[in-house]
C-alpha cells in the first residue's frame, strides 16, 4: 500500500478518536439510533459517503 493510503487511514482513526473523546455520550446515542435503521438505509448512507469522499478526493488532488 502506498504511504498516502496509510496516511488517510491514520487520519480516519484520528477523526474517529476525536469524536469519541469529545462527545462519547452523543456517539453512543448515535450508535443506538443506527441499530434502529433498516439495513437498506445504512447501505445507501454508506454508499453516499463513499461517493462524497471520492468526489472530495478528486477536488483535493
From TrEMBL:
The chain crosses the membrane at residues 42-60. Keywords: Membrane, Transmembrane, Transmembrane helix. InterPro entries: DUF2065. It comes from the Bacteria. PANTHER family: INNER MEMBRANE PROTEIN, INNER MEMBRANE PROTEIN-RELATED. This is DUF2065 domain-containing protein. It comes from Chiayiivirga flava.
Amino acid at each position: 500500500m502506498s504511504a498516502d493510503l496509510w496516511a488517510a487511514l491514520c487520519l480516519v482513526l484520528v477523526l474517529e478518536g476525536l469524536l469519541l473523546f469529545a462527545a462519547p455520550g452523543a456517539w453512543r446515542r448515535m450508535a443506538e439510533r443506527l441499530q434502529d435503521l433498516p439495513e437498506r438505509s445504512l447501505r445507501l448512507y454508506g454508499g453516499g459517503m463513499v461517493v462524497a469522499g471520492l468526489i472530495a478526493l478528486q477536488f483535493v488532488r
